[in-house]
Amino acid sequence: MIKKIYANNPNPKDVEFVVDMLKDGGVIIYPTDTVYGIGCDIHNRNAVERVARIKNVRIEKANFAIICSDLSHLSDYAKQVDNTTFKMMKRLLPGPYTFILNASNKVPRFFTEKKKTIGIRIPNNNVILEIVRVLGNPVLTTSVHTENDMYEEITNPELIHERYKDRVDLVIDGGTGGVVLSTIIDCTNGECKVVREGAGSIDFM
Taking the model in full, what pTM does it have? Predict the structure, then answer.
């Protein structure tokens, strides 16, 4: 299934439709401010396992991140966020960054069995932010991008749907997607360092 949702003014009924699907264990593909993402409700282990199979990884070894609707989720899913890191996140988010933080005990254990950190994203895209807000908790995120993809295969929602229609429950058409991944900043050891330079500028570092 593919459904058009407009980023400038997401239809509340469409958002509710997607949220109900996530609550029922659905796996969706959705637009972000970088590449399209694959995700599900982070508290549904069966759905998370489906995403892991799509990406051909084991959950405990996967570098899945979560999408939060705003910084208020930080106190729930991350611990020991110092003032410098918080101010940086407040300045850069929403935006094309993933912050690696120390995970709190509210992050489902199957995410942190082998590691004690979690990647957190707040993308500048109203579609997924509104879905997460109405859902009430974060959505898992991992990109549709793979090494050998051609440009249109990861930016065109129709082609993404053709590729994934038998493996996900819904592809949200939010327009042409990006091709550059998010910038990853590791803030787990008392200082922040860029571990992947992507769509987000690192001029502030």
Answer: 0.91
